Structures are given as C-alpha cells and as structure tokens.
Amino acid sequence: MSEQVAKPSRHHIWRITLRTLSKSWDDSIFSESAQAGFWSALSLPPLLLGMLGTLAYVAPLFGPDMLPSILRQLISTAHSVFSRSVVNEIIEPTVRDIANNARGEVVSLGFIISLWAGSSAISAFVDSVVEAHDQTPLRHPVRQRLFALFLYVVMLVFVVATAPLVVMGPRKVGEHIPLGLSNVLRYGYYPALIVGLTIGVMILYRVALPEPLPSHRLILGAMLATTVFVTATLGLRFYLGWITSTGYTYGALSTPIAFLLFAFFGGFAIMLGAELNAAIQEEFPAPRTHAHRLRKWLFTRSPALKRTVETLASPIANPATQQRDVAPAEPPR
Q: How is this protein positioned relative to the membrane (predicted)?
C-alpha cells in the first residue's frame, strides 16, 4: 500500500514559514541581495547597450517611428516601477545617450564585452537561487557563469523580438475594438505587467537550478517574490517622495542610492521566493521532473546504453579498471 502524502495544515504552514525565515538568515539574504543590487546597477549601461543596440537594427523594420516608440514605452514602464528622480536622472539619460550611439557599438568589441558585463546581474540572481536550494556543488562556478551569459543572450533575443510587438500590438488592437474594450485594454496594463513579472520570476527559478523542480512547485515562490517587490517598490516610492518634500536629501548621491535600494529589494524578493520554494520542497518533497524521468527511462530501456555501461565496467574491456582491480588495496586510514 502506497504511502499517502500529508495534506498541508496550519502546522505545516507555520513550519514552512519558520524554515523560510531561518534559511534566509543562514544564507545571508541581506548580503546576497546587496550583491545582486550592486551588480544590477553596474550592469544597467551594458544591458541597455546590448538591448538598444540590437533594437537599432530590428526596430526600423517595423517602421521609422518604432524605435522612438519603444524608448517612450521603456521610460514609461520605468516610471511605473522607479521613483521620478531615478528615472529622470539615471534611466532616461542613459537610455537616450545609448540609443543615439548604440547602432555603431553593435559591430565593435565593446558590444561583446557589454554582453559579459550585462550578464553579471543575471549571474548574481542565478547564484542566489541555486544557493537557496543548496545546489551550488552541482554546477561548476565557471559553467554557471557561462550559463548566466547564455540566459542573458536568450533574454536579449526575446526582448528584441517581442518589443516591437508589445509596443505596436495594443495600439493596433485598440484601433479595431469598441471604446469600452479599449479602456479595459488600457486599464489592464498594470495587472498584465504584474502577471508577466510573476511568470518571468518563475521561469528564472525553473532554469537556474541544476536539478529543477516541477513548474507548479515554483508558483508560490514567484508570487511571494512579486508581492514583496511590488510592495517594497510602492513603499520606497512613497518614502522617497516624502523625504524629498521635507527637504532632507543626500544631495547628488540621493538618486544613485535610491536606484541601489530598488535593485536591492529586487534581489531580496527573488531570493526570498527561492527560499520559500526550498522550504516547501523540504516539507513536501516533489517527484522528479518529467524530463529527468524520461532520461532515466530511456537509459533503462536502451540496450545500447546498457551494453556501453557494462563494457566500461568490465575489467577485460577496460584496462584502467583491470589495472585498478589487480593493484593492491591500500590500508584504511
């Protein structure tokens, strides 16, 4: 008779909550979040260079005004997340400067270097997710850094391919639907942004792990990360608006500090969500993913793989194994 899985109860929820908090503290969530925030701030110019430099070639295919529309949409989205000072003094000038010179930079060595530098933020997020699940020994650090670079390139291709459609899509759809539905489309922007953010975090949790969990086991962590980030962003925007109105500022350092705080809370939210997924996995272990079970099934069912393993394990066919077998055993230490 198979063992039945215990249903979640208040006791389990309390244990998962305590485990999430204690493991977050043990994994130094504050220092990891600060590291992710630092690399996010440092990676912003090369990240924008890679994205806008590629869009400078792709966007004109959809019309001469597509690239300016993408820039306006990017700055508008930044206004929805960051404070006004961060957008006006850091993000918007950086976007404008890079957009004016990005087309020539794509064919230079600096663009290749920007890919490596721009992937540093992705690498910090991948490291924090892997550490939260205690899977750091399963992937070599160099391989993990190259994997983060691969994720960054994939993200760059996805953004370049979808940015014209995202900008052009709602406008074209709004021209052919009634006014009431166009209002729904306009007011549904922020919910769609939150849903897209949650899906993006869940995909990061899925692909970052050497031994990934089933996708449905990552939903709660992604929802927690999105909730924490949105709440922290709203609170930080309110605090920065209030502190500015009082006249107490840090002078020229106020805007960089504000951007670093936004980046810090982003890393904090991602790592906290990963810690929740790890705590749930410890309390209710999930079965292997379908891909892992498929590989195991193919290995057990394939006669060729079986013969290869048996051949390598045979002392006659494998001289190294034969030499190891005839060598005298060392005394135990």
A: Multi-pass membrane protein
